[in-house]
Design a protein that fits this description.
binds 5'-O-[(L-methionyl)-sulphamoyl]adenosine; 6-stranded parallel beta sheet
């Protein structure tokens, strides 16, 4: 079985989970579910990033010790993943013992290979980004204060530090990007990384002495490891590193790291350099997505517009939210979340286009075919055309999802949904009942088979609703994968009583 390892970033536990976190996780979940449906053995990892100054500060502000603080917030992130239907195979916390062991092993390999040396760090540090910035990257405000390019405040830091010899990796990284043109996508992000690396690389400070909340450096416990070295290592910890006999080690190198656009540099520059320096294969691909605003504004605590995705699930249901997030905005671009846009898609595309199609087809079968799956019968060109479209969906989506073009994948499915609606209107099986009941049965069977194709490929996007639709279509549980679509289902099977899958959303008055 082909193996597929994919990851979300691990989330900082300095604040509560919000829609931006849910987005990364849901997108990754769709791919994980798709790969499973397509017959791969998947390892899908998510988790929490629990060390560093930022988390230490948040715990201090909450007045609890960092371990108890991270226990609470990590539990909330785990609950959020479950509430979003995320089908992760493992959940890693960087405060776990397995992770400390992996970080120490990686550090020791780097040190043994001469990739780490002790020096002295002096420079600008942004706690909010847990990142160092060069003077030339900073934005100077009229009052003389400096900000990171992300807008985060920076402070001048001077302390002894271990360094990773990143400067030695410029040419090797550029060669690696050249040989692996798909390593970073989309193209805009790849170009940013290329120009950053072409601009020259400084050695990277990889330890801190000014706070304690981190993994101690082997043989020099006055230092804790830089949080990004610690965080990135999670991807190999979960695969069993340093135990290369571990059951999951064959999953490494990861097939795909999904990340937000602001953390591409860490994943596409520092991470492959550190791995190669330690003699470990770099991941195969990094794909970066954009950022969501809310009703046109940046999400922020001070604006009070941070959305808890669980509140949206309570109001609209999980699958409409998952559908909306992936349909509304091309993955890679920034997008805006608005209730209105969500309601429009829910009512138009889910309730109307797809929900009604299924409901009309299934209730006609219940009423006019004794609720039994009709025979295939003799098919005419219009029947073949619709079935060809639904039959092609698996291949079409495989190609779109390989490019993480979720919105295109959904648009392709909806082309077939619209074709099926045009077909049912044109064939008018309700009228055929009196004039040609044999033809009516053929038409209803065509619709049933087209819906089966549609519901099968939509499972990764809307797992619960599509499971219900496949139940109503009488598709046995073991026959819901892509390969099973090649076989027709037997006529005569008794279908359950249909019931609506996507209720229309009606805004409460007042
Ligand atoms: N801990 C690091 C990642 C370490 S990975 C080895 C981190 N954590 S984070 O919690 O700040 O962000 C995690 C993910 O959430 C990022 O991919 C980020 O892009 C995503 N989002 C956070 N806010 C977002 C939006 N408003 N919109 C879309 N995604 C955003 O970075």
């Amino acid at each position: 079985m082909k193996k597929f390892y994919l990851t979300t970033p691990i989330y900082y536990v300095n604040g509560a989970p919000h829609i931006g976190h849910a987005y990364t996780s849901i997108a990754a979940d769709v791919l994980a579910r798709w790969q499973r449906l397509d017959g791969c053995e998947v390892f899908f990892l998510t988790g929490t990033d629990e060390h560093g100054q930022k988390v230490e500060k948040a715990a201090a502000e909450a007045g609890i010790d960092p371990q108890r603080f991270t226990d609470q917030v990590a539990a909330d992130f785990r609950a959020m993943a479950a509430a979003m239907g995320v089908s992760n195979d493992d959940f890693i916390r960087t405060t776990e013992e397995r992770h400390r062991r992996a970080c120490v092993a990686l550090w020791e390999r780097l040190a043994a290979n001469g990739a780490i040396y002790l020096g002295h760090y002096e420079g600008w540090y942004a706690v909010r980004d847990e990142a160092f910035y060069g003077e030339d990257e900073l934005v100077k405000k009229p009052d003389g204060t400096r900000l990171a390019p992300t807008g985060a405040p920076v402070e001048w830091v001077r302390e002894p530090s271990y360094f990773f010899r990143l400067s030695a990796w410029q040419e090797k990284l550029l060669a690696f990007y050249e040989q692996n043109p798909d390593f970073i996508a989309p193209a805009a992000r790849r170009n940013e990384v290329l120009s950053f690396v072409r601009g020259g690389l400084d050695d990277l400070s990889v330890s801190r002495t000014s706070f304690r909340w981190g993994i101690p450096v082997p043989n020099d416990p006055a230092h804790v490891m830089y949080v990004w070295l610690d965080a990135l290592t999670n991807y190999i910890t979960a695969a069993g590193f340093p135990d290369e006999a571990a059951a999951r080690w064959p999953f490494w190198p990861a097939d795909l790291h999904i990340v937000g656009k602001e953390i591409v540099r860490f994943h596409a520059v520092y991470w492959p350099a550190m791995l190669m320096a330690a003699g470990i294969a770099p991941p195969k691909r990094i794909y970066s997505h954009g950022w969501w605003t809310v009703e046109g504004e940046k999400m922020s605590k001070s604006l009070g517009n941070v959305i808890d995705p669980r509140a949206l699930v309570a109001e609209f249901g999980l699958d409409p939210l998952r559908y909306f997030l992936l349909r509304e905005v091309p993955f890679g671009n920034d997008g805006d979340f608005s209730r209105r846009a969500l309601i429009t898609r829910l009512n138009g595309e889910l309730a109307n286009d797809l929900g009604n199609l299924a409901q009309r087809t299934l209730s006609l079968i219940a009423r006019n075919c004794d609720g039994l799956r009709p025979e295939i019968g003799v098919r005419i060109a219009a029947d073949q055309a619709l079935l060809a479209a639904s039959g092609a969906l698996a291949d079409v989506l495989r190609e779109r999802l390989q490019r993480l073009a979720f919105h295109e994948a959904l648009e392709e499915v909806w082309k077939t949904v619209r074709a099926a609606n045009a077909y049912i209107d044109h064939q008018a099986p309700w009228a055929l009942r009196k004039t040609d009941s044999a033809r009516m049965a053929v038409v209803l069977r065509v619709l049933l088979d087209a819906l089966r194709g549609i519901a099968t490929v939509l499972q990764p996007f809307m797992p619960d609703s599509m499971a219900r639709m496949l139940d109503q279509l009488g598709v046995p549980e073991g026959e819901r994968n892509l390969a099973a679509l090649a076989e027709d289902l037997p006529a005569g099977a008794s279908l359950p009583v249909p019931s609506g899958i996507f209720p229309r959303f009606v805004e409460a008055a007042g």
